[in-house]
Amino acid sequence: MGKVIITAALTGAVHVPSMSPYLPRTAEEIIEDAVLAHAAGAAVVHIHGRNSADGSPSSDVGLIRSIVEQIKKRCDAVIGITTGGRVGMTTDERLRAVSELKPEMASCNAGSMNFVLSPIAEKIKEPKYPWEIPFLQGTRDIVFSNTFSSMESYMRIMYGNGTCPEFEVYDAGMINNLAYFLDKGIARPPLYIQFVLGVLGGMAATPDNLLFLVRSARELLGDFVWSCAAAGRNQFALTTLAATIGGNVRVGLEDNLYLKPGALAKSSAEQVTLIREILDRLGLEAATPEEARKILSLKGLDHVEY
């Protein structure tokens, strides 16, 4: 087996500040978590923005630029920028950072789905900010829209800016979507797929589901590079499985706030350290950022616009 790429997804747009005092909220906290995660062994850091005042998700390009510029100054990690943003953002909001910053990598969601966060609201007794509960409960009535038209736009804009699409697959039908775009020559091989399991509205985070998705993708897509992210308590079990069968791994506070049951992770770097220790014990080696760039055929930091 080759090197394993560790991605650290730092803050996301799912968890709210009331759930953990360690969730990065300000630009400075996100930058620091990225640098520490890189030092711990993450080759890739996955970036979302949040408003410093209240921790709410933000797609402001100026904010994203300030984050990625400082990360670039302090380490050589591959920086992947989200186009997911948060549920309800427009296509223009989600793509603006790709067009202006031209990152090495950006997330590209492979289909529409229900993306339901309302069960989280049931666990919050005293919200820290007034936006949190309405935001979480409101996801019961919102579809995370990724139409064929918008997906084609994402791909064309990403390829046009030299940005590698990180195709996020939450359900089996999304593999069929990618096969269509691959057949039409819109998606370019080899694809890089992030299987994201455990979101309510997508496939559950189980070993059987991961094995099924990987097998199905091999049958429909041929050669591809892949990684696994698992929401919540199944994060380390499923990413360990992924690494042992030829995949890469994603950890971080975007996906899971805990280091082990009952113990909040104080940073994404703590989770990177743990998964790296697991890889070491299995005789697997974490990829460096430069090795990750070669595996994913990325353009390098000299060709971004930040």
Structure commentary:
- The protein has 306 residues and is of the alpha/beta class.
- Helices cover 40% and strands 18% of the residues.
- It is built from eleven helices and 14 strands.
- α1 runs parallel beside α10 and α7 packs parallel to α8.
- The longest helix is centred in the C-terminal third of the chain and has 15 residues.
- It is globular and about 50 Å long.
**Shape-level CATH architecture:** Alpha-Beta Barrel
Range of helix content: 25-40%
- The total beta strand count reads 14
| Gyration radius over CA | 18 Å
Considering the chains and any ligands shown, give keywords for the structure.
TIM Barrel; 18% strand; single chain; two-stranded antiparallel sheet; 306 residues; alpha/beta; eight-stranded parallel beta barrel
